[in-house]
Amino acid sequence: MTDQFTQSPDRTLDPQDWDGMRQLAHRMVDDGIARLQGLRDGPVWQPMPQDMRVAFAGPVPLGPEPLEDVYADVMAHVLPHAMGNIHPRFWAWYMGSGNLTGAMADFLAAIDGSNLGGGDTGANLVDRQVTDWLRQIMGFPAEASGTLVSGGSMANIIGLMAARNAMAGIDLHHAGLADMPRPLRFYASDQVHNCHMKAMNLLGLGGKALCRIPSDADFRMDVSALQTAIAADRAYGLTPACVIATAGTTNTGAIDNLTALADLCRAEGLWLHVDGCIGALLQIAPYTHDLVDGIERADSLALDLHKGLHAPFDVGCALLRDRRTHRQTFAETAEYLQTTTRGLAAAEFLHDYTLETSRGFRALKIWMMLRHHGVEAFGRIMDQTVAQARYLTSRIMAEPDLTLMAPTATTVICFRHDPGDMAEPALKAHNTEIMLRLQEGGVAVISDTTLRGKHTLRLAICNHRTRTEDLDLLLHEVLRIGHMLLAPDHETRCEPHGS
Predict the structure, then answer these.
(1) How far apart are CA 152 and CA 314, in angstroms?
(2) Which of 54, 75, 82, 150 gives 20 to 30 Å between its CA and that of 156?
């Protein structure tokens, strides 16, 4: 057996037929571009038939099969049943719609294959330049630092971990949370994203460490209530540590008063973290950048680059005002990871600023996108989506059977079909059915939420492909389906879009 093993031919995963692979790769690119060109003509989303789902429960493939056959399955079964967020009429979850330059960059990054944990490489320099560009874009000082992560949730965790360590009063590299003189207290509005609750548990603080501050009529954190909570916690013997401000809440797109919160944190000696995953990049918008005034004063900031920059999934960024604090939070020594003055290890290890030692080349798509389109183009798109949200809001307010459920602060619109004389449970069922029929018909994908006990449809515009006529079509269909559901023959279902 040993001889047979040693005499077996060398194996590789490279193709045996390079020309055939090249032809198939060109076809994949052509198909991908054709898909983007024809997006508007197809459904936003469509459910997968049950008989097709069976193929995804098969046994593990032990032997090879032609790549052409595998690709045929992708085209026939996977791509037609995508989430749909790249489609012009996808407005459900706020996630961005991708772009071709970024997609091509992801291919090149995968071919490059670099691990961005460290190494003196071109990829390392690109990563460092991208985070420095983002630092400049957001108005952070020269001594600030940044790290690219999977998305907004992880960017928030990076910032909150730095806040925890900086405010603990002890060195948490060596001591534990039980050694802290007093428990830490974090503060956020009742509209905060649930990733912050996950962060509290991940950081060992527990859910009770996060104090949920009431929001005002505009769904922004009540600064006066925050001051009261901080004073009460100090009197009780807790350590107020960090205020989590939100620049664009998930429910309504509201932006907390960042300037007031920055002033308060400075006066109280607290860390200011801003969850800017939805709205932070309004900073580059020519006309609406004032909505995030004060964001540059944060101690840490979470950005979601597949939202405001429409980068293909996944990539987010955590910016920290103090590079030294940032590095001290995450850097650990190891005998097998030592920098040198020459050779591959002559560059700073990027994993000293994050939780991941293995890191993909996420930076390349941002680097290529910003160079190809320019920051100004992305800023104009931010303004465009805000203008579209305001247009849709005005249309909703002009329709007697539609009710606006929250002020439109940025690009999230909350409304519902409300013909009158319906109790809340019935209104919820009625509007949920409208939402589902829009999705199943392939016309548009929106989501829903609950605001202070009232169910609402929710539309989040984070799509550079959206046009005004798409919004007009949405309202037409909401009204049509809503009226149809109230008619005696309401069992009639809408026809799939594009059928």
Answers:
(1) 10
(2) 82
Q: Please give the average per-residue pLDDT across 263-272, as a whole number.
A: 98
pTM score of the predicted model: 0.94
Structure tokens that stand for 431 in this block:
């509007």
| HSE-CB for 222 with a 13 A CA cutoff | 12
Q: What is the CA radius of gyration of the chain?
A: 25
Cβ-defined contacts of 172-178 (< 8 Å, 24+): 173/328, 177/204, 177/205
- Positive or negative CA dihedral for 94, 145, 288, 221? positive
Give CA–CA dist 451/159, Å, rounded.
28
59 sits in the region (left: phi over 0; alpha: psi -120 to 50; else beta) called beta
Q: Are strands 271-275 and 300-304 parallel, antiparallel or unpaired?
A: parallel
Q: Which pLDDT score is estimated for 1? A: 52
Residue for token pair 């690709």: 71
- The 10s digit of each residue's pLDDT in 467-485 is 999 999 999 999 999 999 9
Q: For residues 32 and 240, what is the distance between their CA atoms, to the nearest angstrom?
A: 51
